[in-house]
Amino acid sequence: MDAVMDNEWKDLEARVAELDALAAQAKTADEHATVSARRRFLLIALDSEGLLDAAQAPEVRERLERLGLPVLQGYHASAMELLRYYGSIQRRRYIPGASSRPILGGPVSLDWFRRPDHTPGTYNPFAWLGCCENIFVDTRHPEADGFGEIFMRVDGAMAHLAWRRDDGVTANLIFGRHFR
Q1: d(CA 95, CA 134)
Q2: What is the number of other CB atoms lying within 10 angstroms of the CB of residue 156?
Q3: pTM to 2 decimal places
Q4: Is the per-residue pLDDT at 142 higher than 80?
């Protein structure tokens, strides 16, 4: 049984790596839509395999290391960091009354933590994400758009936020840069 499950995770690793490559090359709206649809199903698969569940984190982490699955390790680590953020005091400072969110259907993409950190020096990473999420949730995201950008001033400098619909429905913040 373990060998079958290990093979399923190896297959999932290959599918996620393929999705990352497709996403990096997507240029047209149709290509982005294809990536979005595939991402949705892969995120559901990651969730059903326990990779997005904090309660299973120690076992999942050990298994991913044992199997040598670096892409899934990155997704899992990002998921655990996102869950930490959702429960953080920094988030509640920017979004009063914020409660913990599930990864699927939440306002922040796993890719926020998979991408290079763009936290300005005046913020800690969770505070910067809280600031960006606060701006993001107050901004309209046209239903027809699968992705978009927001430009605005934050602390006297330009900020660039990018979003997409990871699950094909919910707008998810994927990065925020601050330009001084």
Answers
A1: 6
A2: 6
A3: 0.91
A4: no
